[in-house]
Specification:
Blueprint lengths: L2 E7 L3 E8 L2 E9 L9 E10 L4 E5 L6 E4 L4 H9 L15 E8 L8 E3 L4 E2 L3 E4 L5 E3 L6 H14 L7 E4 L8 H24 L4 E4 L4 H9 L4 E6 L2 H13 L1
Parallel strand pairs: 1-14, 11-12
Antiparallel strand pairs: 1-2, 2-3, 4-5, 4-7, 4-13, 5-6, 7-8, 9-10, 10-12
Length: 247
């Protein structure tokens, strides 16, 4: 059964429909003036630490301070994984501190965005985890034999001096080593750009912005089951062609 992807573009909104057997299976919307911040990476500034709530407010330039809980600090996750008593948030971060953070939940109403310091950057076949040195496999890959084979292949492609890790996405099934290597190199380049920005840009700067909805379609939704992709905008069609070639 093939699936078609329909992309409708207006000046105010982009709509994407995944269609199979004449019926819409998925529908995604992105408004031009309300583009989500999830997955964006910022150089934030801690403006207030709340020991009683084990959380903090971080300014990232979105109009209202964002929020981070101790559970979303990577130091806390490491301690929990080791089974040791977690260090209180007031001993991990302090007011005025610069902090690289990633948005994990968009602002809603009067609430600011929710943040994490556990950074992840998604590619088509891999997700790069610069602070977590392990190889994970998507739960959607059910065959244990295939899971182990993919883990071994990716591990063999990772440089010996790599301090981060990767999650292997379902799109990696059937991929060649060359395709996996290209995705790995692409993600490492993105991370190098993020690090460079963190060293040179002022606090509250945007260090990395996730792709547009139309671009995420090519990255996340296209599969061997895809029949055709129909786009009703010449400019967006040209943009997607250019992005696909660069990627």
């Amino acid at each position: 059964m093939t699936e078609d992807i329909l992309i409708n573009v207006t000046p105010f909104e982009t709509r994407v429909a995944l269609v199979a057997q004449g019926a819409v299976q998925e529908l995604h919307l992105e408004r031009s003036i309300q583009r989500g911040q999830v997955s964006n990476i910022y150089l934030g500034k801690v403006v207030r630490v709340l020991p009683g709530m084990q959380s903090a407010f971080v300014e990232i330039g979105l109009g209202r301070a964002a929020f981070i809980h101790i559970a979303d600090l990577r130091e806390n996750r490491s301690e929990r994984a080791l089974g040791v008593t977690p260090t209180p948030i007031e001993k991990l971060i302090f007011e005025g501190q610069s902090l690289m953070v990633q948005v994990i939940k968009d602002p809603l109403g009067t609430k600011g965005a929710r943040l994490s310091t556990q950074i992840s950057i998604a590619g088509r076949m891999l997700v790069y985890l610069p602070h977590e040195p392990h190889i994970g496999i998507s739960q959607k890959i059910g065959s244990e034999t295939e899971r182990q084979a993919l883990r071994d292949r990716v591990q063999a492609l990772v440089p010996s001096d790599e301090t981060g890790g990767f999650i292997v996405r379902t799109q990696a099934e059937g991929a060649t080593d060359e395709e996996l290597r290209a995705d790995l190199a692409y993600l490492k380049k993105l991370w190098a750009n993020v690090q460079q920005g963190a060293r040179t840009l002022p606090v509250t700067s945007l260090l990395h912005q996730d792709l547009t909805l139309a671009q995420r379609v090519l990255r996340d939704m296209v599969s061997p089951l895809t029949g055709q992709i129909l786009v009703d905008s010449r400019s967006v069609c040209a943009e997607l062609r250019t992005w696909a070639v660069i990627y």
